[in-house]
Amino acid sequence: MELNGIVIDDSFAEAFPMKGTRLVITAHNLEWARHAAVATTGFATSVIACGCEAGIERELSPEETPDGRPGIAILIFSMSGRELAKQVEKRVGQCVLTCPTTAVYAGLFEGDAIALGKNLRFFGDGWQTSKVIGGQRYWRVPVMDGEFVAQETTWVTTQAVGGGNLLLLATDTAAALAAAEAAVAAMKQLPNIVMPFPGGVVRSGSKVGSKYPTLGASTNDAYCPSLRELAAKSELGPDIGSVMEIVIDGLTDTDVAAAMRTGLKTLIERGAASGLKRIGAGNYGGKLGPFLYHLHKLVPGMAEGRS
Is the CATH number 3.30.70.520 carried by domain 2-15+160-297? Predict the structure, then answer.
């Protein structure tokens, strides 16, 4: 399929089930809420080595937060509920509790409950107090700038999906980056998704396995321009000088599909004159996960692309 001069591969992105939660971080102003959110979602690009995948979902106005202050919504995903609970507690304890003026609240209210402030309250060394408001318990922990407020629990959805993706094949790095930046900017306008890599973009796409037995993943040599003439199989023609990947995690498979569709629409509208020549997707022949997002079906105007 070719649209506006860009070839859309007859391929699909393969994604897998995850557990996910949303946290709402508020602070005296948006700057401090963002400091806490950036730190909390740091080093969370891939479950391969980080334990979780996380990112900033969006900014929240005072009218949208429980305490009437500016806030940031973040999403955190992991492969198991147990690992997610561990990551939430560690990250909130080290990156939100420590950040001036912040408070933290649940952003989901259905699913399995996990601790949010339930255990962090013990930092108060016996001075902590709690209050139940609207059926929810909130902990107040004395700290040097006043008090740290944390809702006792947050909730985890088991419907989350990780690993939606688009591969952007362009003439050179500048064109690939510009395409990725435009797609990420459009996709960020959607709720319930994050793109966990730096700037939403990853240049080190991986394949399953390696020549080294201890490694579970290694460079995706079929998409490395420098290996076009060396790898056993290359997916790149002579007109492709750079490839970027966008990875999407969402609270549901519908959210991931919507994000991929928005990314495709943005990229197609920019056209081949932008330097983007092809759009592909990463998959492992259906061996990695049950969520398959077919690019041709996700193109705007086509039928739903999931299977």
Answer: yes
Residue 244 · residue 168 · CB < 8 Å: yes
Amino acid identity of 296? H
Q: Give yes or no for a contact between 295 and 267, defined as CB atoms under 8 angstroms apart.
A: no
Whole-model pTM over 0.90: yes
Outline which parts of the chain fall under CATH 3.30.70.520. 2-15+160-297, 19-157
Concatenated DSSP letters for 80-118?
Answer: SHHHHHHHHHHHHHHHTTTSTT-EEEES--SSEEEESST
- Residue by residue, pLDDT tens for the chain (307 residues) are 999 999 999 999 999 999 999 999 999 999 999 999 999 999 999 998 899 999 999 999 999 999 999 999 999 999 999 999 999 999 999 999 999 999 999 999 999 999 999 999 999 999 999 999 999 999 999 999 999 999 999 999 999 999 999 999 999 999 999 999 999 999 999 999 999 999 999 999 988 889 999 988 899 999 999 999 999 999 999 999 999 999 999 999 999 999 999 999 999 999 999 999 999 999 877 777 899 999 999 997 765 555 5
Per DSSP, 275 falls in state T
